[in-house]
Every structure is written in structure tokens, then in C-alpha cells.
From TrEMBL:
It comes from Erysipelothrix inopinata. One of its GO terms (molecular function) is DNA binding. This is MurR/RpiR family transcriptional regulator. One of its GO terms (biological process) is carbohydrate derivative metabolic process. Residues 8-84 form the HTH rpiR-type domain. It comes from the Bacteria. Gene3D superfamilies: Glucose-6-phosphate isomerase like protein, domain 1, Winged helix-like DNA-binding domain superfamily/Winged helix DNA-binding domain.
Amino acid sequence: MILNRFGLLYSLFSILNQKNQSDADYIIAKYLLENYENMGDLNIYDVADSCYVSRYTVRRFCQAIGFENFSDLKKQFTKYDDAYEKYLMIYQHDDFNSYFMQEVNDTAKAINAIDDSLIEDIASKINDSSEVVFLTSSIGATAVAQFQQGMIFANKVIQVVGDHFENHHLLNSLDEDDLLIVLSGSAGIAKSIVPQLKQYKVKTVLMTMNEDVDDLSEYDHIYSLRNVSTDDALSVVHIKYGFMFFLDRLLSYYISEYSEKGNM
């Protein structure tokens, strides 16, 4: 299992944003995004013909983003349908503005209510670690990217793993002096990567919005940031903004406590 199985759209958009328009990967990614609603009717021959590439190129593309073949990729699109429907429920709400602001405010209050000692504990682990790596799905990617940039002002370099993490050279190089922080809203990713975690020597931290983490004893430390029912559409807002608010709190504390400028 790789992270991209939980962030297929993120992977496709990353290719679209980074590759040259004449690149075969760009062409395939754009075609799949444009034909998302018809994905169930497509086959590898359709993709190869429409993109003017070989079937081998399509297979190579699928493998490059973490799938055995095109059929495997199609299955992931199908699985995404349920999440997509829940996502749409939020933005099709009759009174979106009021609804959205209420959910964001509730999330902010919940994150603000987290005891300072939890923030201090995580910050201390980050400061004491030689290398710090975040592993997250697409829903937490923006929050982590902003945190990564902000930590530069505290002279701490944070790295992010977002592709084929099970073979990622960075994770393989980590040891007991380093820290791997897994950001997993519903804890789905956290559970799926347990077999891979056993291969690494690195200290592990899980930050999740799900309080049901009894079967995740493989992690050295687990922080449940909010009690959220992860089966409803509201959790999309809670997870997205919950991680953003929490990492902002963590960043603020870290800069004030560990940055030389913050202590001036």
C-alpha cells in the first residue's frame, strides 16, 4: 500500500502542475482528470489511443503513481466516489456560508481547547530530532506545506513524503534520532502503513482527528486532536481546518520557544 492510493487526485494534479505539456505523463494525467466521470467505462486501450501513447506507457504511468496497472487505478477512482459525494454535500449545502462558518468556528474552538502540554510535547520531539519527516495525504498537504515553510524561521528543516513512501530513500535513511510524523485525519492511512513502519528504525508520531486508535500500538506516540465522527461529510471540514489550525498553534509555540529570534 502506498500513500498515493489515498491521494490519487493529488498525484494527478501534481503531474499536471509540474510536467511539460508535451510530456506523456502530463497528457495522460490531463486525460484522466477530464474523463473522471467516465472512468468506469474506460480501458487501457481507450487511454492509449486518446493520448497517442502505447499501452506500455500507460502501465508505466500507473506504476509511477503507485498502481500495478490501469485496472488497479480504476478501482481507486471508484473508491473515491463515496468520498466525492460527501465532499459535494458540504459545498451544496442550502446555506453554505452559515454552515461553513459554524463548522470552521467549532473546529477552531476544539483545536484551541487542546492543552498546551500536548503542543509542548510535540514541539520538544521535533526540536530533539535530527531529521523530521511528515507523511500525509492530500487533505493535509496544504497545512503541512505551510508548516514546513514556517519552520524555516525557526531554523528547522521539515521534509514531506508524498509519493511512493514504502520505497522512499528518505524513510529508509531515518534512524532512532529522527522523527516521522504521520498526519491522518480518519486514521485510515495510519492503519494502512503499519506493515511498512515495522521496517523503519525511526521514532513515529501519529496525529489524527480520530479517537479510535486502540489498534495502532505500533506508533511510539499517538495524539488524537479532536473527537470527530469520520463517517459524515462534516469531517472533511474538521480534518482540513483542524490540521491547519493545530499546525499553526504548533508553529507559533515552536518559534517562540526554540527560535533565537522568537526569544529576543
